[in-house]
Amino acid sequence: MRSSVCGIAVKGFHPPSQGGSRVPACLSVSRCLDVTERIGGCSPVAPMSKAHSSMQISFIIPIYNGSATLRRAVDSVFASGSDCLEVVIVDDGSVDETADICAQLEQAYPGKVVSVYQENQGAAASRNHGLQIAQGEWLWFLDCDDEVTPTGIAHFREYIAQRNELDVVIGGYEVRWPHENHRQGPGRLYDDKAQRVIDFLFKKKLRPTHGSIVVHRRLIDRLCYTEKMRQWEDIPVFVRLLLSDRVGLTEHCLSILHRSETSLRHNATHTAGTIETLVDEVFKIANLPDEVIPQRARYTASRYFSASRIILRAGRKKEARQCFWRGVQAYPLRLLSGRSLRFLLRAYLP
Fold first, then answer.
1. Which domains does the chain have, with CATH numbers?
2. Measuring CA to CA, which residue among 184, 154, 157, 133 is closest to residue 76?
3. pLDDT score recorded for residue 80
4. Residue in 214, 224, 222, 320 with CA at minimum distance from that of residue 267
5. Sign of CA dihedral 117, 121, 126, 128
6. pLDDT at residue 189 in the model
7. Residue 68: phi, psi to the nearest 5?
8. Which one, out of 31, 244, 313, 344, has a CA that is 20 to 30 A from the CA of 7?
9. Where is the Glycosyltransferase 2-like domain (predicted)?
């Protein structure tokens, strides 16, 4: 039977034949934050109740056919202890062994791991679903193929203990490819909010990412993901968070992000079709600084150019060229950049 929690349609228990008993998705919620108008109509989420005070950090892991790496992700959370931690796993209709792994993890970490099942709706819906269930004061999203660093949680706790006024913490991370690794700092953070958004959207000088951004429950209304987006759904959320008054940066590496050619091909599948929705979601944010609003055409072009490079790396030259020229149509001046010329050489030469 299907039901609804704060406007999110979900399925109840995971079928026992697919991994045994699961926590029901349709948990009761006393009331919901009325934030629909503020964040573009996506489903609001539950406020913190008194029960939340004993659970300091909730890790929310969306998963679709990621059974091969899920155990590593969850084990990394509890590697340095399990005090005041929980993991919420949202199975987005997986057809692999995810259900069995979830059941095993619930047994390995009793009372610390909660898993729920929903029909396939995408990562955005999975994250929104996880927010309905999470009990923590702090909310930490982690992809199922990534992991927390051995010192990440301890450092985060020390960091917020000295800065208890913060609502958002952005840390560093390590990216691991099959043949190379590199560490990435969080970038720089200005007091000027327009500059923050410009640094994030255009200059890549501010680099939040899932796994290295932790958000206090006070800002839960800014964490609602646009469920029709299957790619880049995090960008509007990060913009809303960067507009917070109380954001802190730490150079410490909080997470390890694992990347592969398989994930690259997956990203290319949804990239071009998501751009117009992404731009709409970013530029309808209610408190977007006035200095950013005139940059819509430029941002549209930048996303098409970024998408064209992703698609080209996946070996789909014709689609990459089409995506590139849509970017030129949105903002013709970008055609004059050296990066655009290099792309054209790769996209048209044999």
1. 2-259 (3.90.550.10), 264-348 (no CATH)
2. 154
3. 82
4. 320
5. negative
6. 95
7. -65, -25
8. 244
9. 58-211
